[in-house]
């Protein structure tokens, strides 16, 4: 297999209005960094707008661009996984389609990688332009809580925008889980990882595709994927409550023997409500783990590819298959994984 020096992997969901400018800017940045020796991998994650048509047009006009069309919306992290499976560059740049992460930083990121002998250069957001106060506050809180509870140190204020070496990517792709929190998985992989500070720009066009629901889901994937602290929380609370109930027992016993036992409705309600709340919370957290265990045990493919436009250079694992399938260069043809 001939590896290009660089692959740029871009998951896209309803990014019709961003794709042309994205293509121009990413191509220019890649050319400035490695000359003609690059490929751009676009993943259409079941967009509802005309993204796929634009991708097909771009693939037809640019031999360095390959676009894959997933069978439906599989979510950002799985779309990204599809692109990472498919790309074959010696270095890999992961970037969002909305141009919030400036592609022009590529050259500096490569320089940092070379200078520090790093396998991963991850971009840390210093400023976030044009995002709501709510998004900034929840994101900042999320990264800090995550840092407290996880066993793997995951860098703060870092999204998926990063440059990786081939060996770091291969290591990442060897992790088979369904519930993917890629920035955490990259941190888990290890090797030498260095930060690269930048200012996050405003979205070029369109709206965020990460509403509160998706953010909560990603946060739960992050916590359950990288920490068992919430499970331990149950035993810690249990222990504390046992201690407290022993004291309560002594108090009740004293009341009984001195004959001063009162009606005590307030305290009873308090205990019932508190215990009920703690039990529901702990049960819910156990449910989160159990649900993920169940999903993992089904061993379904991570995603399914419906169409490919443009030349697929490498050996791509389409869907989560034990064996990689060789994909012949196609233009606009259909590739059914595993067939
Ligand atoms: N995205 C995706 N599938 C989804 C949601 C988002 O592929 O279901 C892509 C989206 O096109 C973008 C990236 O993931 O390239 C980040 O999404 P977005 O910009 O909406 O998130 P935000 O920057 O607001 O956190
Ligand atoms: Mg964005």
Could you explain the architecture of this structure?
- The protein is an alpha/beta fold.
- 47% of the residues lie in helices and 17% in strands.
- The protein contains ten helices and ten strands.
- It has an eight-stranded mixed beta sheet, sandwiched between helices. A two-stranded antiparallel ribbon has the order 9-10.
- Strand 2, helix 2 and strand 3 form a beta-alpha-beta unit.
- Helix 6 packs across helix 7 and helix 9 packs antiparallel against helix 10.
- The longest helix has 34 residues.
- The chain is elongated and about 90 Å long.
- The two termini are 21 Å apart.
- The site of magnesium ion (MG) has 5 residues, from loops.
Which key terms come to mind for this protein?
binds uridine-5'-diphosphate; elongated; binds magnesium ion; 339 residues; 8-stranded mixed sheet; disordered C terminus; single chain; alpha/beta; 10 strands
């Amino acid at each position: 297999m001939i590896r290009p020096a660089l692959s740029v992997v871009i998951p896209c969901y309803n990014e019709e209005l961003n794709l042309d400018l994205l293509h121009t800017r990413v191509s220019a940045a890649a050319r400035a960094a490695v000359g003609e020796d690059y490929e751009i991998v676009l993943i259409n994650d079941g967009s509802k707008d005309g993204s796929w048509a634009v991708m097909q047009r771009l693939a037809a006009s640019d031999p360095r661009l390959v676009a894959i069309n997933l069978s439906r919306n599989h979510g950002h992290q799985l779309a990204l996984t599809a692109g990472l499976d498919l790309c074959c560059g010696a270095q890999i740049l992961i970037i969002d389609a909305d141009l919030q992460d400036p592609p022009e930083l590529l050259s500096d990121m490569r320089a940092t990688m070379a200078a520090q002998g790093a396998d991963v250069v991850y971009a840390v957001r210093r400023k976030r332009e044009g995002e709501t106060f709510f998004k900034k506050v929840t994101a900042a809180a999320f990264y800090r809580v995550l840092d407290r509870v996880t066993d793997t140190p995951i860098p703060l204020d870092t999204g998926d925008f990063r440059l990786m070496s081939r060996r770091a990517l291969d290591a990442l792709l060897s992790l088979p889980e369904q519930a993917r929190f890629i920035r955490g998985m990259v941190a888990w992989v290890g090797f030498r990882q260095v930060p690269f500070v930048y200012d996050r720009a405003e979205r070029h066009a369109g709206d965020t595709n990460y509403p509160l629901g998706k953010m909560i889901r990603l946060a739960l994937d992050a916590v359950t994927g990288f920490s068992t602290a919430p499970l331990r929380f149950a035993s810690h609370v249990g222990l504390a409550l046992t201690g407290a109930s022993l004291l309560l027992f002594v108090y009740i016993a004293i009341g009984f023997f001195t004959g001063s036992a009162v009606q005590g409705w307030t305290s009873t309600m308090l205990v019932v409500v508190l215990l009920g709340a703690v039990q529901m919370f702990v049960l819910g957290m156990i449910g989160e783990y159990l649900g993920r265990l169940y999903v993992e045990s089904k061993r379904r493919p991570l995603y399914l590819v419906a169409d490919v436009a443009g030349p697929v250079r490498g050996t791509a694992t389409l869907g989560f298959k034990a064996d990689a399938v060789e994909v012949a260069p196609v233009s606009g043809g259909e590739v059914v994984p595993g067939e």
